[in-house]
Each structure stands twice: as C-alpha cells, then as structure tokens.
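Give me structure tokens for this 82-residue protein.
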Amino acid sequence: MPAKKSTPKTTDKTTAPDKNGNGRQPDYYIYQSEELAPDKTRLIQLGAAWNHVNGNGLSIKLDALPIRKFDGQLVAFPARER
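Here you go.
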C-alpha cells in the first residue's frame, strides 16, 4: 500500500494570543508575489498579521521565509470571513 501523503498546515488555524491569552484570528494574510510569466503572477502565502489592540501597527508572524525570486516586497490582504 502506498504511503499516505501528509497535507500541509493551513493558516486558517493561525491565531495570536490577546492580552488575556485567548487566540485571535488574523486580520491579514501575508503573501509573496511571484511572477511566473510576463502576464501571469501567483501569490505564495507566507504568514499572517494582526492589528494591535490600540490601533497602532501590526504584529506579523511568518510561517515561511521568501527566498525564491524574492524582490524584497510582501503584500498583505485582509482575511475574509469564513
């Protein structure tokens, strides 16, 4: 019987502790944009970000580091309600 392939963890379960130690869902997901062809680009999810409670700034957690064709830029998109 062939070996079962493991599935990678998704960031849907990524949480950040609030000041009471409870987890919060991300406010943003962090991506690297990779150009595959002149007219084709893909986004690679690298982590998540949370708004600070006081409204100033973000906390960012990267699950992976961008290394392939990295131009120094990351993009953040709001997390959608699921």
